[in-house]
Design a protein that fits this description.
The chain contains eight helices and 16 strands.
């Protein structure tokens, strides 16, 4: 037997061996799929997931297992990755595109959801369940135009009217990009001032647990006899929530005008603030804590600093409400002559409650109420007596039509010193009403 014959025999033997191995592996994959399908039908999710993963390890293009792993995924991000992989393996299966579109929509990626549903309806135009999904995705992805308005007043006779317009549109990745413009007209009964603001905005949820809201632009402060002044304004808000109502971290950085009175506008009062809040679940309760550091700058005096600490023991009442015991303490570095009240310290002890009502139909409401006691110390003096402190906040949205929603928000304080912003006197009461369409 010559060398050529020996080589041919060896090649033939290798081919038979390879085919045998391939058949054995194919039989093993088929057996694993059958066992995984049985576990899936028996609702043994853990075993089914393990077996389907074994199938994928042996045959990455086994599309049936890829689809099932999407159905068994522990979160929407993982499910979406499997369904997108499935659409690449089975691009002519409309149900794969529907599954991907559903996950895109749940993650707020409305542009991608529209594209997936369009592909599905192209493949199965007679399927009645696709069109409602596409319509829902289109509504969520549609550009939004929002007229804004509001009025606020306080016990010192200051009043502010605000009018504006805001709009945004969806882009890929679950983001919306837009802009807003607003004018605030401020009066104390004898003098007037105005603040004009223009902001570019970007908001979205790149991950289900992560929410971003970024804004930046310019503000123009006008108050006679001072000349108009233009300055940067910004607002960046980042929030991280763990799954299952677990812990959360909330960070906000902002620069905004303290334009609640004509005098503050004339003195170019600005607030540069960093807020940090965290929530930690412990059993059935939550511990919430946070702090704020604020730098107040004006044109008539050096910068002033305000520090605030917050702590709360929160008792959830289902997923729609909570009651809490709260403590707040804040203080200014020094007194001010720029037009705002700056005590040495303010302490507040209160009970609070928050509820979300509706939300499953055409309307949704939120209520946040607090009542307690508050005491205050002027700069370098002992704290005074405890006094009653009250606060209230509420918001309501109503769907007037399929594409028009009315929104209103009300906020009020009756306290020696409110735990947010700045006041203009020791005994200060404040109310605000805003609305949008």
């Amino acid at each position: 037997m010559n060398r050529i014959s020996i080589s041919l025999l060896l090649w033939a033997f290798a081919l038979v061996l390879f085919q045998g191995t391939l058949v054995a592996q194919t039989d093993k994959v088929a057996d694993l799929v059958r066992r995984a399908d049985t576990a899936f039908a028996d609702e043994d999710r853990k075993l089914a997931q393990t077996l389907y993963l074994e199938v994928i390890a042996m045959n990455p293009e086994q599309s049936h297992s890829v689809y099932r792993l999407g159905q068994l995924a522990n979160n929407d991000e993982a499910a979406l990755a499997w369904f997108v992989r499935y659409t690449k393996l089975e691009p002519d299966d409309a149900w794969g595109w529907i599954a991907a579109g559903d996950r895109y929509l749940r993650l707020g990626k409305t542009v991608e959801a529209c594209q997936a549903y369009r592909q599905a309806i192209k493949l199965q135009p007679e399927a009645s369940e696709i069109a409602p999904r596409l319509e829902k995705a289109r509504l969520r992805a549609a550009p939004v135009l929002e007229p804004l308005g509001g009025v606020s007043g306080d016990s010192d006779g200051n009043q502010t009217w605000k009018l504006g317009l805001s709009g945004d549109a969806a882009i890929r990745g679950g983001f919306r990009i837009g802009a807003s413009a607003a004018r605030s007209s401020i009066s104390d009964g004898s003098t007037r001032a105005s603040i004009d603001e223009g902001l570019f905005k970007l908001r979205g949820r790149p991950l289900r647990a992560l929410r971003l809201e970024l804004g930046g632009g310019v503000g123009r402060l006008t108050a006679s006899p001072a000349s108009p002044w233009t300055t940067p304004v910004a607002d960046a808000h980042i929030r991280w929530n763990t799954a299952g109502n677990g812990g959360s971290v909330d960070v906000r950085v902002m620069r905004a005008a303290l334009g609640t009175t004509p005098l503050l506008v004339a003195n170019r009062a600005m607030r540069n603030e960093l807020r940090l809040t965290g929530t930690l679940p412990i059993g059935r309760i939550r511990i919430r804590g946070g702090g704020r550091g604020t730098q107040i700058e004006t044109s008539v005096e050096p910068q002033n600093r305000k520090l605030q600490g917050d702590a709360a023991l929160v008792f959830p009442m289902g997923w729609r409400g909570e009651i809490s015991a709260q403590y707040h303490r804040l203080g200014f570095q020094r007194a001010s002559r720029a037009g705002y009240f700056a005590p040495g310290s303010v302490e507040t002890i209160e009970g609070g409650t928050y509820w979300q009502i509706g939300g499953d139909g055409r309307w949704n409401a939120e209520i946040d109420l607090g009542a307690g006691m508050q005491r205050m110390a002027l700069q370098q003096t002992a704290p005074g007596s405890w006094k009653l402190a009250l606060r209230a906040w509420g918001a309501l949205s109503v769907d007037l039509t399929r594409i028009v929603t009315f929104m209103t928000e009300v906020e009020a304080y009756s306290a020696p010193f409110a735990p947010v912003g700045v006041s203009t006197s020791p005994d200060w009461r404040y109310a605000n009403l805003s609305f949008g369409l």
